[in-house]
Amino acid sequence: MARAHTDSAVGGVNTRPTHEKALDDLCKIMPHIKRSVLAEYVGEAGGDYMKALLLCKNAVTAGKL
């Protein structure tokens, strides 16, 4: 029997709260940017807040945000 895909890391640890926390924190410091846009950066960073922040910084510098 195949298992359904879930937002889980190895060992069955749920990674969703990490993504949500990172997204919530980014939204606090960048309230002028839509949450859905910031969610893309958090996803690209694998839920890592600092990586997402760096991606956003680079996007701002490049004029994309």
Topology, element by element:
Layout: H1 16-29, H2 35-44, H3 49-61
Helix pairs in contact: 1-2, 1-3, 2-3
Q: How would you describe this structure to a colleague?
A:
There is one protein chain. The protein contains three helices and no strands. The longest helix is centred in the middle third of the chain and has 14 residues, at 16-29. It has 65 residues and is mainly alpha-helical. The chain has one domain (15-61). Helix content is 57%, strand content 0%. This is CUE domain-containing protein. It comes from Phycomyces blakesleeanus (strain ATCC 8743b / DSM 1359 / FGSC 10004 / NBRC 33097 / NRRL 1555).
Can you summarize the main beta sheet? none
List the secondary-structure elements in sequence, H or E. Answer: HHH
Percent strand: under 5%
Broad structural category: mainly alpha
Distance between the termini: 44 Å
Give the overall average pLDDT.
84
**Overall number of strands:** 0
Number of helices in the DSSP assignment: 3
Question: Low-confidence parts lasting 5 or more residues at pLDDT below 50?
Answer: 1-12
**Global shape:** globular
Rg, rounded, reads 14 Å
Organism: Phycomyces blakesleeanus (strain ATCC 8743b / DSM 1359 / FGSC 10004 / NBRC 33097 / NRRL 1555)
Protein name: CUE domain-containing protein
